[in-house]
Amino acid sequence: MSTMSKIIGRIFPTFTSARFAEYRIPRLWVITLVALVAKSGLLTGSLYGILGSLATAIVAPPLLCLLSIPALALRRRGQATYLLLLNGLLSFLLAGDAVYARAFQEPLGLHTLAAARTMDDMAGSITAMLNWTDLAYFADLPVALAAIIASRDAMTHSSRRLGTFAVVGTLSAAVVLTQILQIGVGSHLSDRRFLPLTLSPVGFHVYDVASAVSNRDRDLSREDLSDIRAWLGENARYQAPDHAFKTLHGNVTGKNLIVVQIESLEQSLLGQRVNGEAITPNLNRLIGESIYFPNVVQQVKDGNTSDAMLLFNTSTYPLRSGSAFLRFPENNFQTLPKLLSSDGYTPIAIQGDAEEFWNRDRTYPSLGFSDYVSENRFEDRREVGMGIIDESLYKQSIIELQRLQEPFYLHLTTMTSHTPFELPEEMKLLEMQRSDQTSNYLQSVRYADEAFGEFYADLKRRGLLENSVLVVYGDHEGIHKYADSTWLPDNNARVPFIIHTPDLKGITVENPGGQVDMLPTLAYLFGFDPEEYAWAMGRNLLGPHTGSAILSSGDVLPEADDAEHLQEGLRVANLIISGDYFSSSGG
Predict the structure, then answer these.
(1) Residues 188, 333 within the same domain
(2) CA of 300: how far to CAs of 324, 401, 557, in Å?
(3) Any idea which positions bind Mn(2+) (predicted)?
(4) Judgement on whether residues 192 and 261 belong to the same structural domain of the protein
C-alpha cells in the first residue's frame, strides 16, 4: 500500500477495511457526499446564522446522491474524476453564494449567473465582498484529489453495485420530490429567501433551474391578467393627496426635470458629521429648499442599480429573480419618460460606463428615453473605480442640457461612490482618524456630494435651474449593504428622496414609503391625472396614507397601510414584467 493510501486509510479507516475492499470509489463518493453536506451547512450558517437545518440534513444527502449517479456510466478513474469535478463545481457555486449573499441576502440565482458577462467592470466590487472564510469551501479538494491518486482500482459495474445505486437513487428522488412539493404549503416556504433552508443550498439551485425552464417565455393566463387588473385597480385609491398638500398638485407643471441617482447614498448620512465635518454639506443645504422624504426604503433586488432605475422610471417592483434589464430589456414598459413625452418632453439618460453594460443600450429605449449618452460620447473620460468620475458626468450633462430644447427630462446615474469605495488620495476630502472600509465609504460619499454641489452651482450660474425641478435620490444602501460590519449607526434600509425647485419653502414629509412611490409623487406634482399613470404600482407620498413601505424581501414596515396588498404587489410585479403585460391584450 502506498504512503498516500495509508494516509487516506488513517483519515477514513472504515472505508479501508476488508468489508469495503471492493468499494474504493464509494469511499471517495462518501467523502464527497460528507464534504458537500458540510459545505451546505456552512452556507446556511452564513445565510441564516444556523449551521444547517433539519430540512437541509434530510434533502442534501439524497440530492447529492442523485447528482453523483452519472459516475456509474463511467469507467476506471473517470468515475473518480466526475466526483472531483462535481465537488469542485459545487464548491465554487456555494462559495459564490456566500459572497453574493453578503450583498443580497440570498444565493446566486440562475439569471444572475447567466448575466456574468455584465460583470466585467465589477471585479473590484466582487473582490471587496470576499472573505478569507470562503476558503473553507475548497479545503477538502486536495484530500479528494489525493484519494484519487491513491486509488488504483476502478469500480466495476457489478449487479450488486448497480442494484444498490438504483435503490439509493429511487429513495433519494422520493425524498427530494417530497420536499419540493411542500413549497407553497406555508408562506415561509414559498418565500424565495427560505428556499435554501427548505431544499438545501444545492436544492435551491436545482429548483431555480427548474423554475426558470418552466417559466421561460411564459404567457399570462386569464387568471394572471385578472389579478394584475384587480391589484392595479385597488392601488388607484392610494394616489389621492392629503388635504394639506392639495395646493401642490400641478405646482411644477411644464418645468424641466433633472434627476440625479446617486450611487450607494444612505439616508442616515444626511445632516451627519464625522470629526466635526459635514458628510453631505451640499445635500444638506438643498433640503432647506426642497420637499424632503427621509423615510423611503430601498426596494432593489438582483438588479441593484438597474432595479433603482426601473423603480424610479416605471414604478414597478423588481423581478423576484434576476434583473429586468437583463432578462426583459425589450419589454413594453409604461414609464415616466413616456408619460412626460406625451406632454412634449425630450427624455434622455446619461451614465459614465459602457453603452451595453447591463443591457442599457436595449433597455433605455424600451423605457422611453430618446437618447442615451454613454462613456464613448464623453469629452472627459477620467475614471475611478466602476466608471467615469462624477465630476466628468456632471460636466457632460451640462453640455447635453445646452443642446436640448425645453421641456426636457434628464436622468443622471453617478458611479464614483460605488463599492469598493476606493478613491485616490487627492479626491479624499474628509480628515479621518481611521483607515477602514467605513472611512473609505464616507470619503466616497463626501466626494459624491462635492461633485453634486459643483453641478448644482453650475446649473444655477447658467440659469438652467430657473425653470427646472431637480430630484436627488439614492439607488440603494452603501456600507450597510456591502460590509459585514460598520461603526456607523443603522440606516434601516433608507435612501434619501429630495424634490427641489428654486424658491420652494422646505417641507419634510415623514411618511414612510419606498422607491416605487417616487414616480406617482412626481406625477402628482407635475399635474398629471391619476388615470394617466394608473399602471404605477407605487403610491403618492403626499397622500393621507402611508407609501409602499415594503422591502424587496417582502418584509413590510409595521406602520405601513394594507400590508397584504403590498406583499401581493411583489408577485403581481413579477407577472407584469415576465409576462410583458403592457404588450398583451390586457395591457
Answers:
(1) no
(2) 11, 29, 16
(3) 263, 305, 475-476
(4) no
Query: Is there a binding annotation on residue 418?
Result: yes
Q: Which residues are marked as active site?
A: 305
Residues 293 and 188 grouped into a single domain: no
The 10 Å Cβ neighbour count of residue 332 is 14
Local structure of 394: helix, strand or coil: helix
Q: Do 505 and 571 share a domain, yes or no?
A: yes
263 is in an annotated binding site: yes
C-alpha cell at 469: 425641478
- In angstroms, the CA 455 to CA 100 distance is 34
Q: Do 289 and 165 sit in the same domain of this protein?
A: no
More confident residue, 148 or 304: 304
Domain limit, last residue, from 164, 193, 214 = 214
305 among annotated binding-site residues? yes
Note down the domain range covering 267. 248-583
Instruction: Give the chain's domain count.
Output: 2
How many Å from the N-terminal Cα to the C-terminal Cα in the chain?
A: 73
Find the length of the chain: 587
Interval 212-260: pLDDT, tens: 676 665 689 999 999 999 999 999 999 999 999 999 999 999 999 999 9
Helical (H) or strand (E) element with 65: helix 54-68
Helix residue ranges per DSSP H, 316-414 = 324-327, 336-341, 360-367, 390-403
Residue 348 domain flag: yes
DSSP state of 303: T
Share of the chain above pLDDT 70, in %: 78
